[in-house]
Amino acid sequence: MKKKIIKNIKQRYLFKNLEKKRLTLKILSKNCNFNKKIRFKIKKRWLLFDNNSSITRIKNICILTGRTRSIYRILKISRIKLRDLVSKRLLPGICKYSW
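Above: the chain sequence. Below: its structure as tokens.
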């Protein structure tokens, strides 16, 4: 599970660093005011980016377990761990309603 968490952190870091470059090249490649040759060169540079730097590759993963399903986005914790932490009263401000 630790490997998944580390991979997710690396993907988020890559996306954060390359987001502006990706967007500028994407916008420039779609601009019709440029010559076709220039747009083609820009598209080539855009395709050379690492696939892991794309936002669609990033998944919501539980920080504690590495589980990918049923994650609460605000806390970044899966529903199973959330239930355990609430029952042990480790999360302030969250109380058990009916489980």
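The chain has two domains: 1-59, 60-99.
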